[in-house]
Inverse folding.
């Protein structure tokens, strides 16, 4: 008698959950040592609903088809000098920010999900974490391969992996994932799968990909589309994680709420880099950071937390502060990078008149009052040949590691400073949110590797800024500083002028 053909549900069960086994000579608590460390109580792992519902053979077939399409487009992009189709060379600095600040995080997510999957007794959770770990590894590879085309023609891409562990502003994204990976498995999933992938990921990928499309960068758009179907699965996992934990035991609710408060704030602070990119680094802008925050968090996120209210979950603590700060954080961040353009591996510039009118229209209550005067002043200095570079080093927030540039909510002209005492030392913070996170886990955050502290201690290549820049593997005046005086700008002007006359050569320093 012929074997009965399995339906999709039966085949999926056989290819995933039926692959699990019981241990014969080791106790479960010895195999899964992190299951109880956070206080989360799981009564029935079989209640886990698999959000991906993919078997591994289907997964590889599905991803392989996307790979073929992606690399065909990348190859066509390279053969047709696609880098000349972007609006102007200033846009390329947004790609430098993405490659140095985001792509290494994809690799850290790959490691994190592989580690977390090892800690879960439930086979459904194991399979979901395994597939997401492979997804994240694929993402970093496709991003590096896509953006590597620009490395042939523009400066500042070549040492991105080295710089991720050293450059001052990259301690912000690096510390975010170091914090998550060094937490327990349930907190990691709350941090990455829910708080970042579900609540905040649209504020990362949508601005970068739509900005790329609007500025003629079809290679970046393509890898964005290739990753977006994966991101949809990841968001589903994030929501499933929270609902599963909350449905397992009522004691889990206060623990999860505390994690949501923490990781919303940590993710929101990380997105300061994206806010700056949206408002200042795109020659052709898609929308302002303020508009993006209102759409993706205030509206979409608000609806999400209304849905989760039936589990007892409320909106994250300090979300009201993010609503006020949406009018200032991008400007404060760009001003900081303008000050320290000699110590970052991309170029900065003052907005031109048309761009400042756009910023004024998008931020009618803050831009003209607080930020336009400083840009006009810096532009005048630049015209006189006195481009401003700040020779000092800023105080950093111990928690998020961003310079202290954020405002007091009741007076946007004042900078917010908070501090805590711990074992005889004083620690400084940019906000009440960062102070609360520290006060809850001071033993963890006193270990923060703060770049400014390390520079002052002589641990970053030497005692001078020039020594530090060399330690970063940056070529001063080539990879950094003012865009108007950069080889990238001079090359771009030369290439676009001759683009119809001759083939564009690889990058060279143009005198």
């Amino acid at each position: 008698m012929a074997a009965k053909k399995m339906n999709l549900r039966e085949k999926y069960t056989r290819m995933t959950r039926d692959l699990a086994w019981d241990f014969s000579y080791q106790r479960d608590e010895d195999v899964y040592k992190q299951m109880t460390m956070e206080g989360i109580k799981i009564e029935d792992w079989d209640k886990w609903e698999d959000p991906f519902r993919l078997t591994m053979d289907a997964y590889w077939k599905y991803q392989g088809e996307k790979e073929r399409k992606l690399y065909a487009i990348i190859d066509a992009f390279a053969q047709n000098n696609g880098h000349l189709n972007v609006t102007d060379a200033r846009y390329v600095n947004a790609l430098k920010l993405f490659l140095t600040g985001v792509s290494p995080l994809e690799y850290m997510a790959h490691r994190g999900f592989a580690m977390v999957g090892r800690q879960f007794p439930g086979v459904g959770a194991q399979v979901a974490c395994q597939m997401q770990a492979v997804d994240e590894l694929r993402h970093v590879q496709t991003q590096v391969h896509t953006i590597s085309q620009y490395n042939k023609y523009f400066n500042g891409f070549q040492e991105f992996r080295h710089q991720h562990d050293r450059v001052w502003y990259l301690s912000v994204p690096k510390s975010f994932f170091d914090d998550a990976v060094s937490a327990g498995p349930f907190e990691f999933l709350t941090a990455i799968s829910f708080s970042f992938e579900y609540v905040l990921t649209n504020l990362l990928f949508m601005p970068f990909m739509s900005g790329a499309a609007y500025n003629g960068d079809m290679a970046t758009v393509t890898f964005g589309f290739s990753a977006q179907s994966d991101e949809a699965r990841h968001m589903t996992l994030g929501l499933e994680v929270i609902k599963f934990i909350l449905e397992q035991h009522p004691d889990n609710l206060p623990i999860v709420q505390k994690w949501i408060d923490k990781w919303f704030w940590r993710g929101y602070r990380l997105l300061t880099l994206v806010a700056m990119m949206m408002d200042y680094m795109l020659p052709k802008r898609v929308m302002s950071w303020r508009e993006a925050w209102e759409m993706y968090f205030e509206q979409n996120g608000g609806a999400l937390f209304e849905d989760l209210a039936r589990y007892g979950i409320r909106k994250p603590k300090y979300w009201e502060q993010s609503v006020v700060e949406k009018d200032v954080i991008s400007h404060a961040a760009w001003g900081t990078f303008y000050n320290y353009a000699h110590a970052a591996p991309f170029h900065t510039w003052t907005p031109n008149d048309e761009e400042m009118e756009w910023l004024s229209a998008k931020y009618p209550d803050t831009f003209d009052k607080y930020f336009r005067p400083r840009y006009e002043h810096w532009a005048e200095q630049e015209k006189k040949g006195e481009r401003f570079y700040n020779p000092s080093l800023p105080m950093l927030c111990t928690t998020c590691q961003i310079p202290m540039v954020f405002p007091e909510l009741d007076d946007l002209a004042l900078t917010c400073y908070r501090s805590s005492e711990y074992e005889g030392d004083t620690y400084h913070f940019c906000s009440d949110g960062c102070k609360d996170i520290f006060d809850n886990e001071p033993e963890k955050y006193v270990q923060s590797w703060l770049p400014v502290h390390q520079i002052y201690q002589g641990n970053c290549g030497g005692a001078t800024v020039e020594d530090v820049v060399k330690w970063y593997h940056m070529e001063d005046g080539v990879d950094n500083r003012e865009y108007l005086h950069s080889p990238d700008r001079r090359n771009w002007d030369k290439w676009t002028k001759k683009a119809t006359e001759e083939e564009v050569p690889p990058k060279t320093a143009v005198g």
Remarks:
- Strands lie at 407-408, 411-415, 418-422, 425-429.
- The two ends are 81 Å apart (CA to CA).
